[in-house]
Amino acid sequence: xxxxxxxxxxxxxxxxxxxxxxxLRGWLPPYPETTGYIIPTFFxxxxxxxxxxxxxxxxxxxxxxxxxxxxxxxxxxxFYRGNGSKRPPAVFNTGQVVLGWCRAFSETRDERxxxxxxxxxxxxxxxxxxxxxxxxxxxxxxxxxxxxxxRTAWSLLELYxxxxxxxxxxxxxxxxxxxxxxxxxxxxxxxxxxxxxxxxWNVPLTHTIAYVMEGLMGAWSCLRDxxxxxxxxxxxxxxxxxxxxxxxxxxxxDRTWSANATYSCLTGNAQVxxxxxxxxxxxxxxxxxxxxxxxxxxxxxxQLLHTANLDLRGGVKGSQPIFxxxxxxxxxxxxxxxxxxALMLEEHVAGARTTEVAS
Length: 359
Fold this sequence. Notes:
It is a single chain. By secondary structure, the chain is mostly helical. The protein folds into two domains: 1-163, Glycosyltransferase, CATH 1.50.10.20; 182-359, Alpha/alpha barrel (Glycosyltransferase). The protein is built from 13 helices and five strands. It has helices at 2-9, 32-49, 52-68, 91-108, 111-126, 150-163, 166-181, 206-223, 226-246, 266-278, 280-283, 287-300, 333-358; strands spanning 20-22, 26-27, 264-265, 319-320, 330-332. The strands form two sheets. A three-stranded antiparallel sheet has the order 2-1-5. Strands 3-4 form a two-stranded antiparallel ribbon. Helix 4 (91-108) packs parallel to helix 6 (150-163).
């Protein structure tokens, strides 16, 4: 969390969080997408520690997102390089900022955040295809459709719970149905890589696989449709089996769950651990807790905690080893965010287990 605070301070002074620290380029510009979903992490940590600084920082992030929202209501793709940049709007990025604004409104009751989220939600609903997928406004460097956009469907459900606008519920449900149709019996999802061309990245990362599970579980928490939980559980179980067999999670997989990757995606590891820590409350399988603790230990072992270099201390690399395929030579803000989430969940689960034993 200290490293994330430094990333925010290095994000240009407006409140947005720097995308990360590159060993080649130094601190990167702020990233609207990830700043959006970092907001709930800072509110969670503020409540956990009773430290008002983290609460104030979350509010600054939400305010900064108001400043960078496009006239259409959408959020741009990629890093923010000023009002003159010509980045296109992006469905996934917009959804992640909606999640941040919804939490900011719930915490502060400031209507500006809810109004911005509604504008963004209307843009998302207007751009959705009839089958529930989002094929418009995809960043030019990505495929035209993604299973991990289900995390955006979850954001519309969070918004629906605040404003009771039927079109947000309908759009979310359509995308959820489309997403369920992409899952194979073995838990793998079609259309879940960043790219489609053979000469680019055309297999899913643990990062994008976890995005789908997070979106499904978020949707389940809102609607209690057991199909969403069962789909997430199917994927989570396969990943747990791989981790138990290999002692490590490769960074990417094909549709048979084969992996040629020689690196691990630390962002994906932290997300998967977070999913595993949420599941035992619903499926009563203690094996997920044991696996999550092991995966968290793996990420802990990669974190630099004693270096005098504050640009690195506490950060989490994109890949292990650091020159791996995913964001090489870079400590990224979303890896630190998801790791903080996983560690807070680990403490919560440990506390709950202690209470059960005592009673």
